[in-house]
Amino acid sequence: MRPCRLFVAIALPFILVASSAFADTSVEDHLEDARSLYYAGHWQEADEAFQRAHSIAQAGTKLKAASALEWGTLMWEQGNYERAEQLVNEALELARELGLDDATGELLVAQGHIEASKGELSSAENTLNICVQLTGELGDPVHRALCRLNRRMVRTLRGKDPGSDREFRDDVATLSDADSTLSIGTSLAKTAELYRDSGDYERATQLLSEAQQMYRDAGSVPAVTRNQLRKAQLLHHQGKFEEARPVVDGLLPRFEKMRNRPMIVHTLALQAEDAIHQDDPRSGVKLYRRALAIADEIGNPQLTGRIHLALCEMSFTESPGHCQRATEIFASTGMTFLEIRARTALARTHQIQGEFEEARTAFRQAIRQLEEAVDTDQGTHATSRTLQYANLCQVEAQLEATGALTTCTEALRNIEDLDEETRERHAGLSVATIHATARTAMQANRASTALEHFSTAAELYEELGEDNHLRIAADIHLRRGAIQRQIATERDNAADSFQKGLSITNELELDEEDVATVHISLLTQLAQLHRADEDWSDAIDVLKKLRDAATGLGDHKSAAWAYSGLASAYLQTDRRDDAVEALQEGRPLAEKADDQELLQTFDENLQRFDN
Questions:
Q1: For residues 501 and 522, is the Cβ–Cβ distance under 8 A?
Q2: Which candidate, 99, 214, 263, 474, has a CA 20 to 30 Å from the CA of 537?
Q3: Taking the alpha carbons of 35, 150, 322, 426 in that order, is the dihedral positive or negative?
Q4: CA–CA separation, 117 and 81 (whole Å)
Q5: What is the Cα–Cα distance from 288 to 203, expressed in whole angstroms?
Q6: pTM of the model
Q7: Residues 53-95: pLDDT tens digits?
Q8: Are the C-beta atoms of residues 370 and 376 closer than 8 Å to each other?
Q9: Is the Cβ–Cβ distance between 155 and 163 less than 8 Å?
Q10: What single string gives the DSSP state of each residue in 260-292?
């Protein structure tokens, strides 16, 4: 299962509104206490201190605005969005009345955060657009950078162009030049994110470590803990679950102490991913459900949708319901790419469960939505479209749908356009698509095309080397031989195809049902071929192998058929006694198989010998 990446918002690293030198010192004292408690990670006490400052601050003052905004920010970080919104709106109104231009950036960043957390992405983008414009006019480069970074995240969620990489780097550089250790840490963490997304994990890890030192120097327990979460997420991104465990260890109680519910959800998701990695899906589901309950409680649709998506991608009995819910949430909030991912996961779940019509509909919807949202000719979007087409090809092959060969041909063309590293990463899906293309070619009566793709698929499956891949390769050789038998120009190659399949199944465990089925079918087809060509010596040799294999597997019908074939071949080579013996030994097996037609054949042949 692919790990579920949950968004961690940029925490505000600044004291939000400077208090007046002539203000009530008792309010200032409460605010300073609250800030100290906040940075020490004592959020319950900080909440009480902010509340006291707000309650005693004089109406219509800067300190009233400051206490409302800073208290509201704490509420936002704890996932209390409704209360946070009330407080930030109060601060906004006061700032307008008092002409607090220097607070504009802080206020609008906070408002944008809250709206994004509530899933109101259109409003959040509008707020952040205003923030970018006003902070630019007011000469506040730090909050302008924060607004653009947050707007980038919101636009990405909405499936829109987030902005140039140059703008991103400029904003990160602005934060790194700010007069704040915390802002420098934020800059380093965001740069690490850029390196992570480009695949430079070593550099990303180094930057997160540097950011962690900055946060320690600033004495911010919340920032240190959030950054530790980022490091754990990076390790999961790389598949380094064992290395991530000590990093994750201790995060949950620290976030629980702060009652930072969004971060609790993130941490539970990491623990769930690790449980699944350790082949403990039961614990994984339990942890995800706990995270889901908290995400529902705080009303963060992105977190709720992502947990549903994670449960969807686990592909268990309840997955379709989680897939559907994730799709609905992302659709209703305009999170385009997450909606596409959820719809694709829903399609995969239907595919795994054999619900191919439903899978086909979902894949087609996801492809259409992706193509309408972005340019899918290159980059990650091209890869996403390619993978969806590859799965759609396999689904249509199962359905024997009209136009399936066209779909599969398009899928193969897309795979060929991928870079070598990406093709290697998805080697299994690539060969499965070649295999499905061969099957659709057969359905379209394109035998030569089918044989070509079957040959390539068999070779690639053998290179992959896992037992399940080898079983598929043997089955492909069975199909190739069956096709070649029917084509005059290919008939001489049929025996070789059957023998290649047998060379594989002879090395596998025949007590596996799928392997046994292929092995018996290969021997049966090869025996039929030799009998049809009157190669009696070869036929007898293969029929004996079929008899022994079928008997050992308890396949009475195939064993009886082999005895019947042996009797016929013995008669053709003047071995009458051997033929009678084969019929006598085979008849009880036909009776056990309850195959009346085969049983009648045995009786009629035995009667001829009696006469």
A1: yes
A2: 474
A3: negative
A4: 8
A5: 31
A6: 0.80
A7: 999 999 999 999 999 999 999 999 999 999 999 999 999 999 9
A8: yes
A9: yes
A10: -HHHHHHHHHHHHHHHHHTT-HHHHHHHHHHHH
Query: 299's torsion region: left (phi>0), alpha (psi -120 to 50) or beta?
Result: left
pLDDT higher than 90, residue 11: no
Nearest to 147 by CA among 182, 100, 115, 177: 115
Please report where in the chains the tokens 């030049």 appear, as a residue: 177
SS3 520: helix
Give the DSSP per-residue string, 33-56: HHHHHHHTT-HHHHHHHHHHHHHH
Tell me the backbone φ, ψ of residue 160, rounded to 5 degrees.
-110, 165
The angle subtended at Cα 78 by Cα 74 and Cα 82, nearest 5°, is 85
Q: What are the tens digits of pLDDT across the range 295-309?
A: 999 999 999 999 999
Q: Give the type of residue at 459.
A: E
Angle at 116 between CA 183 and CA 253, to 5 degrees: 65
Residue with the two structure tokens 């996801």: 366
Cα separation, 276 vs 3, in Å, equals 10
What Rg value do the Cα atoms of the chain yield, rounded?
A: 34
Least trusted range by pLDDT, from 88-97, 188-197, 213-222, 585-594: 188-197
- C-alpha span between 44 and 232 (Å, rounded): 26
Cα distance between residue 117 and residue 115, in whole Å: 5
Whether the CA torsion 533, 539, 542, 543 is positive or negative: it is positive
Nearest CA-CA partner of 454 in 437, 471, 466:
437
One-letter amino acid at 143 equals H
